[in-house]
Write a structure and sequence with these properties.
The protein is α/β, with parallel strands linked by helices and 415 residues long. The chain has 2 domains: 21-43 and 299-410, Lyase, Ornithine Decarboxylase, Chain A, domain 1; 45-286, TIM Barrel (Alpha-Beta Barrel). It has helices at 21-31, 44-58, 73-80, 93-101, 116-124, 126-131, 139-147, 184-196, 210-213, 223-251, 268-272, 284-287; strands at residues 39-43, 63-66, 85-90, 107-109, 132-136, 155-160, 165-167, 172-174, 200-207, 259-262, 279-282, 304-315, 318-322, 339-342, 347-348, 358-362, 374-378, 391-396, 399-405. Strands 1, 12, 13, 14, 15, 16, 17, 18 and 19 form a 9-stranded mixed sheet that branches. Strands 2-3-4-5-6-9-10-11 form an 8-stranded parallel β-barrel, surrounded by 5 helices. A two-stranded antiparallel ribbon has the order 7-8.
């Protein structure tokens, strides 16, 4: 089940200088003039430049692309064809099996699953079973898989290390609540249990430091907060590097590890610098959504945007666009809303925000917009944009060179 051909990526993509906002807006408008909005686009020059920068930051270690942040098979295949990328980090078992049957290999399912039908399919077919590695951190997950087995295919297992930073003797926790496996001995004990269970084999370790990789350290207008984040992240990196190295040493006494995965777009350099880590994960940096603007260590180019048509002009300094209320997941707040990007100078009405059906936008730039003109937005997160659109129009220069279906466009609703 191959995707349609898409313009090939360069083997080693070169960094392409960003154009001015007005030039980019003109290009996107010309490229999509034949399309009715709302419309979603990916600027391939920016996408390729961002990919090249991720590879540069990884300093020779392979980058495993996070499918959750891309959600378009054509673009997954594009980035996997580039030097420096290897393997996929998937987000559901159903998606993992679909990608494996589509021809992709080396798929790490980075979240535990309770998909009984999926595990029956995985254990019944040696092909997908060899391509997919599942994440486990609890004996009950082993029981669930065994209870649904439909064959004797070996299940490849990755364990997850809890990366949260504990302060004041554990009274303060900084980091996502993920795995219960925190110490090297926790991992080793669970690995021994897995290895003793027929039909399972430990092949990898994952340790995702979301409080470093997913939290910007340069918050606009918040210098004190930014400083505190940098102090926290410095302490977290030092603590985790020591604990992750100890965990890998102990785990290698129990299992033959094929990979040790860590990091994310915001921590590529620091994670790749750890000798114990063999690969880093990244995905959001390909699209460069707005939440990833707040880092000192790198500056990506906005590559994924969506355009909403102007449908009303209620008065001076205000226009109304169709829809646009596409909030991102996470703790609710203004930073989870898309940002009006082009033309510059537009902002939300604080009493209405981004609306389900219509969105008023304020600012002097509104007076230069006519009915039917397009306002370009950036989503707060990366792949979640693809849950709102069936297709992405891929742009080179000022023309659409391919239209690629998103997961939704391929009638795949994984979450």
């Amino acid at each position: 089940m191959a995707t349609p051909d898409v313009a090939a990526a360069p083997a080693v993509p070169a960094t392409v200088p960003a154009g001015s906002p007005s030039a980019d807006r003109a290009r996107y408008d010309r490229a999509t003039a034949h399309l009715d909005g709302p419309v979603a686009v990916v600027d391939l020059a920016a996408f390729d430049a961002n990919a090249a920068d991720l590879v540069r930051r990884a300093a020779g270690k392979p980058v495993r692309v996070a499918s959750k942040s891309v959600r378009c098979r054509a673009l997954l295949e594009r980035v996997l064809a580039m030097d420096g990328f290897a393997g996929v980090m998937s987000f559901t078992l159903a998606e993992s099996l679909w990608l494996a049957r589509s021809g992709l290999r080396d798929i790490l399912l980075a979240y535990p699953s309770a998909d009984r039908a999926g595990f029956a399919e995985l254990t019944a077919d040696p092909g997908p079973a060899a391509a997919v590695t599942v994440l486990l951190d609890d004996p009950a997950q082993l029981d669930l898989i065994d209870a649904t087995r439909a064959g004797d295919a070996e299940v490849r297992v990755c364990l997850e290390l809890d990366t949260a930073l504990h302060l004041l003797g554990g009274r303060i926790r900084v980091g996502a609540r993920r795995s219960p496996l925190r110490t090297p001995e926790d991992l080793a004990a669970f690995a021994e249990l897995v290895q003793l269970r027929p039909g399972f084999r430990v092949v990898g370790l994952m340790a995702y430091e979301g409080h470093v990789a997913g939290v910007g350290d340069r918050v606009p207008g918040r210098p004190v907060r930014s400083r505190l984040i940098r102090l926290m992240q410095s302490a977290a990196r030092a603590e985790l590097a020591e604990r992750r190295a100890a965990a890998v040493r102990r785990l290698r006494q129990v299992a033959e590890l094929e990979f040790v995965n860590g990091g994310g777009t915001g921590s590529v350099e620091s994670t790749a610098a750890e000798p114990a880590v063999t690969e880093v994960a990244a995905g959001s940096g390909l699209y460069q959504p707005r939440l990833f603007d707040n880092y000192r260590s790198f500056h990506g180019r906005p590559a994924a945007l969506f355009g909403q048509p102007v449908v009303r002009r209620p008065g001076v300094g205000v226009v109304t666009v169709l829809g646009g209320g596409y909030p991102a997941s996470g703790a609710a707040g203004p930073d989870r809303s898309p940002v009006p990007w082009l033309p510059p100078g537009l902002r939300y009405d604080p009493m209405e925000g981004a609306g389900e059906v219509q969105t008023p936008l304020l600012g002097a730039a509104a007076d230069d917009l006519l009915i039917g003109d397009r306002v370009w937005f950036r989503h707060a997160k990366a792949g979640e944009l693809c849950e709102r659109f069936a297709e992405l129009h891929l742009i080179e220069g000022d023309r659409v060179v391919h239209t690629a279906p998103t997961y939704r466009g391929e009638r795949k609703t994984f979450l």
